[in-house]
Amino acid sequence: MRRIEIFDTTLRDGEQSPGVALNSDEKLQIARQLAKLGVNVLEAGFPISSPGDFQGVRRIAQEVRTLSVAALARANAKDIECAWDAISVGESPRIHTFLATSPIHMLYKLQKSPEEVLELAIQAVRLAKLKVGDVEFSAEDASRSEVDFLAKVFSGVIKAGATVLNIPDTVGYATPEEYAAFLRAVMERTTGIEKVKVSVHCHNDLGLAVANSLAAVGVGVHQLECTVNGIGERAGNAALEELVMALHTRRDQYDVDTSIVTTEIARTSQLVSRLSGMVIQHNKAIVGKNAFAHESGIHQDGMLKDRSTYEIMLPSDIGIDAETIVLGKHSGRHAVHQRLTDLGLDLGESQFEEVFSQFKILADRKREVTTADLFSLVDLKTETEDQIRLDYMQVSSGTHLTPTATVGLLYNGQRLEDATCGDGPVDAAFKAIDKVLGTEGKLMHYSLQAIDGGEDAQGEVTVTVKFGDNMVGGRGVSTDIIEASVLGYLQAVNRAFDRGWIKIIEKNAS
After folding, report:
1. Which residue from 381, 428, 444, 463 has the fewest beta carbons nearer than 10 Å?
2. pTM score > 0.85 for this model?
3. Which letter does DSSP use for residue 169 in this model?
4. Radius of gyration of the chain (CA)
5. Please, what is the Cα angle at 373 between 369 and 374, to 5 degrees?
6. Cβ-count burial of 333 within 10 angstroms (0-12 exposed, 13-18 middle, 19+ buried)?
């Protein structure tokens, strides 16, 4: 199976999105995650643009050494020297130089003749080649360039030492069929094309960036340039996650593979969104909040019978481990009953019908019925008394303190107690409970809401916890939100224990 290389330009073209300004630490954090994701080439920035960008590129090249780190440079000596200074400390550096080749860019922007552009391109690649073995040349606005002239430029830069040719659709003007035909024509007329890798870089001005990139795969290109979440200039770039999952899901169509670790996609997407400040739209393909969500009763019924009825890939494929069925006014009995069962709320037929009737009334007033809402609909007094109860808890946390929790529990006639640290006071308390009991719960959902107003309002915490392959819910109420959290977690533990999903390891008794 042919391997397609992924060239990620989130830290260069992506950062050029209006309003995005990443500092050196943030860029390094994203770069390290991109290395985990498995991208082949990471374009770390445009070093000549600012001292900060230079330092950011240099730091990434120095510290992220498991992939090729590229730096962008215009086709002039000053840019190329600066790019080389930034990436020369890297394990596998690449200089990426570019020059516009379309008639409109040459006339109005560069104000140079085609002959001058050809000579500048060759000189730039020749200079870059003196610095580094891996040189990529991009013909800016290639898709609006004349085929014969573009092939002439490419033939010249290949002779000068270019190892990668990029044929971008810079302004997102091309259509898939047109772009594929254009690529074929250019590749057929370029002397030495067999000696280099061919790359494409598509923008999304007409919403065709991914489609054009996939059309290029069909032509036989070797590299796709893209950004996480599709961020970038104007309407953005081809989205990495969409390209990768299209190639992964439709291998039967494209017969290619990538080195991307797909289970890192969701984590990478969320990191980029958080650090860039660019919120992911809910219906965004692959990584949007609703990408794997199902509310329609018909869809939910099909999903519960067999996921393949409405999902062409699994949430776990991209690293999501969450409930995908959203309960709302369109949900049917099957979905509600299944969710209640998943939460450990086993109801008789008559009791379920009463709860479902109340669910429908509530769903007409709310866009989504949450786990917390379900617990409020169910009469929890019918459950047996908790066998594991909270005796005391003590939590310490602060700006310069490591959050620590000590928890004492009553079980089987004795007090069990232990202490541990966590990422925050609630996390520390949950870990302390697990340490006391010898359990291992994974928090899947956490919800906090005030029951009433005022400074002394009670907080209601609802949690969903996974023990092994089983999920169970819990609810706690207190004026202290940490105590409410602990009570909710303990209720989930008790439910799992009652159903035989966990075993208690008695230790640290007093």
Report:
1. 381
2. no
3. B
4. 28
5. 95
6. middle
Where do we find the tokens 């692959």?
A: 286
Task: Return the closest-CA partner of residue 368 out of 324, 322, 312, 433.
Answer: 324
Residue burial 142-151, b: 16+ Cβ < 10 Å; e: rest: bbbbebebbb
Q: How large is the average pLDDT for residues 440-467?
A: 78
CA–CA dist 242, 287 (Å, integer): 9
Alpha-carbon span 288 to 454, nearest angstrom = 36
In the 8-state DSSP scheme, what is residue 315? G
495's tokens? 């439910």
Q: Is the separation of the CB atoms in 196 and 165 below 8 Å?
A: yes
What would the two tokens of residue 270 be?
Answer: 């969320």
- Estimate the crossing angle of helix 209-219 against helix 240-249, to 10 degrees: 50
Phi, psi of 68 (to 5 degrees): -85, 130
Query: Which residues have C-beta within 8 Å of that of residue 381, sequence separation ≥ 6?
Result: none
The single-letter code of the amino acid at 147 is V
Q: Could you write out the three-class secondary structure of 8-76?
A: ECCCCCHHHCCCCCCCHHHHHHHHHHHHHHCCCEEEEECHHHCHHHHHHHHHHHHHCCCCEEEEEEECC
401-433 pLDDT per residue, tens: 999 999 999 998 889 999 999 999 999 999 999
Q: What angle do CA 37, 202, 14 make, to 5 degrees?
A: 55
Token representation of residue 391: 């005796």
Instruction: Give the pLDDT score at 320.
Output: 77
Single out the residue of 271, 263, 232 nearest to residue 245, CA to CA: 263
Query: pLDDT (tens digit, 9 = 90+) per residue, 252-276?
Result: 999 999 999 999 999 999 899 988 8
Q: Are 287 and 241 in contact (CB under 8 A)?
A: yes
Which letter does DSSP use for residue 501 in this model? S
Strand-pair category, 414-421 with 442-450: unpaired
Q: How far, in Å, CA of 500 to CA of 208, rounded? A: 52
Number of Cβ within 10 Å of residue 424's Cβ equals 13
How far is it, in rounded angstroms, from Cα 471 to Cα 333?
A: 20
With a cut of 70, say whether residue 304 has pLDDT above it.
no
Residue 359 exposed, middle or buried by CB count within 10 Å (0-12, 13-18, 19+)? buried
Q: Which of 50, 71, 49, 51 is nearest to 60 (CA)?
A: 71
The HSE-up count of residue 509 (CA atoms within 13 Å, CB side) is 9
Task: Report the DSSP beta bridge partners of residue 509.
Answer: 416
Helices (H) and strands (E) in the chain, counts: 17, 16
Report pLDDT digits (tens) over 218-260.
999 999 999 999 999 999 999 999 999 999 999 999 999 999 9
Buried b (16+ CB within 10 A) or exposed e, 473-509: bbbbebeebbbbbbbbbbbbbbbbbeeebbebeeeee
